[in-house]
Amino acid sequence: MAEASQSHNRAAEAPRNGGWTIAQNWRSYTQDEHDRWSRLVARQEKLLPGRACDAFLEAKETLKLPRHCIPDFSKVSDRLSRLTGWRIAPVAGLIPDDVFFDCLANRRFPAGAFIRSERALDYLSEPDVFHDVFGHVPLLADPVYARFLEAYGKGGQRALSRGQLHNLARLYWYTVEFGLIRSSDGLRIFGAGILSSPGETVFSIEDTSPNRIAFDLFRIMRTKYVISDYQQIYFVIDSFEQLLDQCYQDFGAFYDRLQAARDIEPHELLPDDHVITTGDLRYFRTRH
Ligand code: HBI
Ligand code: FE
Question: Which SUPFAM superfamilies does this entry report, sorted A to Z (predicted)?
């Protein structure tokens, strides 16, 4: 993902991205919806100490994400943009890949403006305001992570043009969504898919089922993933610097090598893996 620049996009919030950005319309949320946000935050905050990485917990405070009402994107964006130049762009749900990457490449994070229904409190497949703003936005205040995600957006644009998106999407999945990071006190979570899920917050750190192995870019790009269930493998980075260093390159040569390499199943371990914990795959066996 070469070409990531440190320049921030300070363009005013004008209609852009082919009209995929909507108005958040903060006043239209009901009291029920604000309450739902509060309960989701409270439930998650009980579980995060000792499991979420420090950078996430600190950034959440720095950004002053409100606990008792759905955040006003423009207020959070004003704080965030002073730190790293990122802003939140409200969207109605999933947006096309090219629009998504264009946003990231310009330090705009597309965030669902709606909140999940009461029935879907534990899990929904669409990215809503809790997953996007509570899960993803805090780390955008970390300068190194901020550069990594911008570089990912630029890499996404190139992957699309090469027809290699399925490989690059795995990198996003196993880092931005479901990544773990080492700390001096043990493994910690930085992936937003985990940080917005109470079940997986505990599972990813404590369960004996999943394999946990050291981050390896080529290995990740070969590894299939399953959506809508806990992961059978987690990749562990040493630091955001490592993630940025590894990803701050043009993946062209990688993609050529990938053509010749077979895909790896999510539960598989390979002889070359740097294994951190070997899973007993107990959970996996009950599901397959
Ligand atoms: N749209 N709103 C939204 N959020 C995403 O995470 C997202 C998307 N569109 C496409 C997309 N993700 C994928 O391209 C990436 O996960 C690779
Ligand atoms: Fe996400």
Answer: Aromatic aminoacid monoxygenases, catalytic and oligomerization domains
Q: Is residue 13 part of a domain?
A: no
Rounded Cα distance, 59 and 52, in Å:
11
In a domain, 233, yes or no: yes
End-to-end Cα, the chain, rounded Å = 36
CATH number at residue 199: 1.10.800.10
The pLDDT of residue 245 is 92
Whether the Cβ atoms of residue 248 and residue 1 lie closer than 8 Å to each other: yes
Distance 162 CA to ligand 1 centre (A): 18
Among residues 214, 256, 9, the alpha carbon closest in space to that of 109 is found at 9
Q: How remote is the CA of residue 202 from the centroid of ligand 2, in Å?
A: 18
pTM of the model: 0.93
Q: How many domains does the chain have?
A: 1
In a domain? residue 109: yes
Print the domain residue range for 33: 28-287
Q: Calculate the alpha carbon distances from 215 to 17, 73, 232, 233 in Å.
A: 33, 33, 15, 11
Question: Could you give the ipTM of this predicted complex?
Answer: 0.96
Q: What is the pLDDT of residues 184-237, one digit of tens each?
A: 999 999 999 999 999 999 999 999 999 999 999 999 999 999 998 999 999 999
Please choose from 17, 88, 97 the residue to mutate so as to test ligand 1's pocket, defined by most ligand atoms within 8 A of CB.
97
Supply the residue whose CA is at minimum distance from atom 2 of ligand 1: 94
Q: Residue 156 CA: which ligand 1 atom is closest?
A: 17
The answer as to whether 48 is a domain residue is yes
